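Hey, I'm writing a tutorial for new members on how sequence and structure tokens pair up, and I'd like a real worked example in the thread rather than a made-up one. If someone can provide the structure for the chain below, I'll link this post from the tutorial.
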Amino acid sequence: MVGAAALVLLTPSAARAEGKGDIRVVSAVVDGGTNVLVGTEKTINFPIAITITDNSGVKGLSHASTFNRTTGHGFIDWTGTTCQKKTSTTSVCTATMTVVPAWIGGYSDSDQNNDAGYWTVNATVKANDGDYWISDNIAQYKLKRASKLTTDAAPEPVAKGGTVTVTGKLSRANWEDLKYHGFAGQSVQLQFKKAASSTYSTVKTVKTNSTGLLSTKVTATSAGTWRWYFPGTTTTAQIVSGGDSVALK
């Protein structure tokens, strides 16, 4: 998955927690440190790796949950755990979390699209000697709506110095009706790569219209490939379109 790294554990003392004994969560990492992207069809499974320590050894993870930090809503299920012993006192327990897009709309009467953004993780851990610890906010990450982006450059081929019209559409997943809708008012970068080059450069930035459409005109100075790049937002995944090559006459 593409995206900026997720925020991981603050520190054990920074998270609100209660329990008994000296068992503690040392760190927690969501999906290897990436954003979690959810579309309209595919079931998404992602791991939360929780490092736990206790002087008697770690018995395991007895609860894991995650929910939107602002709204308090959660539609992600804890569906399994595996624990790996690292030392006599430390284990890494990995919780598998599952999102089924078709079920999202049934978790709340409110618009579930508003739950994209920053999410937090809670967990309860247990030790061999009976110690336990209920930890809140052990990790934070971004859960984003998946996006789509298209590119079309025309005419093909074009005379050198002629005008190329590059169009496209930016859309994102709607978790309520399970369809992709145009994403309006977003700044999208038009990029170009000369023929035989491996590097794209940004030519200009264009905003999507009310239905997510993009359109701009550029001068053809050389043969090459055009594409659009959307850097993403807090709630919507970044994406790069496929390229469309234009040759010179």
